[in-house]
C-alpha cells in the first residue's frame, strides 16, 4: 500500500506542476483588466474593465450595436481587440455627445 502511494505521487506530480503554471499577462498593473485572445494572436490584451463584466450574450449584443454604428468588427460573442477598440472609441464619443448636449 505504501508503494502504491509513492507510485501515485510520482505519476501525478507532473500533472499538478503543469496545472500550477498559470499563463499570466506580462507585468500586469493593479486596476487594469486583461483577457486572453485565444483565436488569433494568443496573447494577453488589455481591455476596458466594463467589458470583462459582460456575459457572452451581452458581448454579442454589444458587437451587433457597434457593427450597426459602423465599426468593422466580427460578431463572435467574445472580447477581442476589435471589440475593445471600438468600445473605447464609442465610449469617448458618447461622453463628447453628452457634454455637447449639456451645453
From TrEMBL:
Keywords attached to this entry: Signal
Leader sequence residues: 1-19
Name listed for the protein in its UniProt record: OmpA family protein
Organism of origin: Neotamlana laminarinivorans
Taxonomic lineage of the native organism: Bacteria, Pseudomonadati, Bacteroidota, Flavobacteriia, Flavobacteriales
Amino acid at each position: 500500500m505504501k508503494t502504491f502511494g509513492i507510485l501515485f505521487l510520482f505519476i501525478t506530480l507532473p500533472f499538478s506542476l503543469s496545472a500550477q503554471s498559470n499563463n499570466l499577462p506580462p507585468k500586469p498593473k493593479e486596476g487594469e483588466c486583461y483577457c486572453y485572445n485565444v483565436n488569433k494572436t494568443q496573447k494577453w490584451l488589455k481591455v476596458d474593465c466594463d467589458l470583462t463584466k459582460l456575459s457572452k450574450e451581452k458581448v454579442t449584443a454589444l458587437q451587433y450595436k457597434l457593427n450597426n454604428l459602423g465599426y468593422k468588427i466580427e460578431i463572435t460573442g467574445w472580447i477581442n481587440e476589435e471589440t475593445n477598440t471600438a468600445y473605447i472609441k464609442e465610449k469617448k464619443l458618447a461622453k463628447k455627445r453628452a457634454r455637447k448636449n449639456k451645453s
